[in-house]
Amino acid sequence: MTPLTHYLAVSAILFFVGAAGVLFRRNAIIIFMCVELMLNAVNLTLIAFAQFMGNQAGQILVFFVMTVAAAEAAVGLAIVIALFRNKETVEINQINVMKW
Amino acid sequence: MELEQIVFWVLATGAVAFALLMVTGKSAIVSALMLVLTFMCLAGLYLTLHAQFLAVVQVTVYAGAIMVLVLFVIMLLNLKNEEKIFPKGWKTFVGLAAALGVLAQVLAVIYASSDKMPQAMAPNSIVLGTTEGIGRTLYTSYSFPFEMASIILISAAVGAIILAKKRLV
Is B163 exposed, middle or buried (0-12, 13-18, 19+ CB in 10 A)? Predict the structure, then answer.
């Protein structure tokens, strides 16, 4: 039987890989995919706790996280398309009109 | 080692390795395909946790629908590859050191509190993750949030169309 700590450790490593990707990459679509990876890492934590504690609420929450991730993917990619139409790039270094 | 543990280690190393390849991949297409493989490994990990329904949803919704959408946008935009991913000099070093430090701290907390965590899966964990179990809870205790999710999805669909259109009318 794999202990709960191993699942949590895998989840933490995946989350930090995703966070490092968000901080280091400049392509908006790849940053977007890194956010999806972080959401999935948290999902793994939720499912592991739900199964080890015998409480279904964690799995229901994962279901809703997936719903929100699907909505976020649709809206985020639409924003990327709108940005590319205006600026001809998705490099976040060159998209700085809202930078203070 | 038991078979279950072997499966866990293969899937866990696979997930982490593909995630690293995703973050360091130069072209967006390669990153997207590596992310699909990461999602597949995560679906396998859900299966080792007896969460069958979520494993299937992970493959169909994440690896299927969302990643196809992402690949579609990448192909549509015809992007150039990034030349260098990590900036030169001390910024990369400091950033990576800080990230690894925080990660080490989180892992230390997880393993230090391991004796306070449940040691084995709950006896009812087999029935929790089935489609029947999830569906029963979703349509009884969580029926209102379930309907709210449909509103979120419809507003996201409308919003995506409005954002991606050239002119509104």
Answer: middle
Work out the number of other CB atoms within 10 angstroms of the CB of residue B33. Answer: 17
Query: What are A34's two structure tokens?
Result: 């890194």
Asked whether the beta carbons of B128 and A60 are under 8 A apart, the reply is no
Interatomic CA distance for residues B26 and B68, integer angstroms: 19
User: A51-63 burial, b for 16+ CB within 10 Å, e for fewer?
Assistant: bbbeebebbbbbb
- Answer yes or no: do A18 and B31 touch at CB < 8 A: no
Note the pTM of the prediction, 2 decimals: 0.91
Please tell me the distance from the alpha carbon of residue B99 to that of residue B108, in angstroms, as a whole number: 14
ipTM, two decimals, is: 0.92
What's the pLDDT tens digit per position in B83-108?
677 777 787 788 888 889 999 999 99
Using DSSP, state whether B1 is helix, strand or coil: coil
Residue of A2, A13, A44 best to disrupt the B interface, most CBs of B under 10 A? A2
Q: Which residues contact A73 (CB under 8 A, 6 or more apart)?
A: A32, A36, B66, B69, B70
In this complex, which of A10, A43, A74 lies closest to B156 when CB atoms are compared?
Answer: A74
Cα gap B23→B1, rounded to integer Å: 32
Taking the C-alpha atoms of residue B43 and residue A64, their distance in angstroms, rounded to an integer, is 17
